[in-house]
Specification:
single chain; 114 residues; mainly alpha; 434 Repressor (Amino-terminal Domain); 5 helices
């Protein structure tokens, strides 16, 4: 995992939030029926620039995300809300696993008295 330092605070490039947005970027491009070369030309960049972003090797800021959103005719919410829905889904899975574990342990506990 690569780390970048900003004011002495390490930041991992491969965070879950970053990966979720990257996946949404790829999905938005494909839904727009655009290839990487077409998008790169419209942004005035090389194809490798887009490839590195979509593979998670290159970070991007909110202004670049805004450019992608405009090009793909998506709102910024399309990319940002995906983070929160991903986190919520993850938390719901944890809660469900805990519920099942608790139920199993309760059943085992009460089975001793039957």
């Amino acid at each position: 995992m690569e780390y970048y330092t900003n004011n002495g605070i390490p930041r991992a490039i491969y965070t879950k939030d970053h990966n979720v947005i990257v996946e949404r970027l790829k999905k938005a491009r494909l839904e727009s029926w655009l290839g990487q070369i077409e998008v790169a030309k419209k942004l005035g960049k090389m194809q490798s620039y887009l490839s590195k972003i979509e593979s998670g090797q290159r970070r991007f800021d909110v202004l670049q995300l805004k450019e992608f959103a405009k090009l793909y005719k998506k709102s910024l919410d399309y990319f940002i809300k995906s983070i929160y829905s991903h986190r919520l889904r993850f938390k719901m899975e944890i809660l469900e696993n805990l519920r099942q574990l608790f139920k199993l342990r309760l059943n085992r506990f009460f089975a001793r008295f039957v």
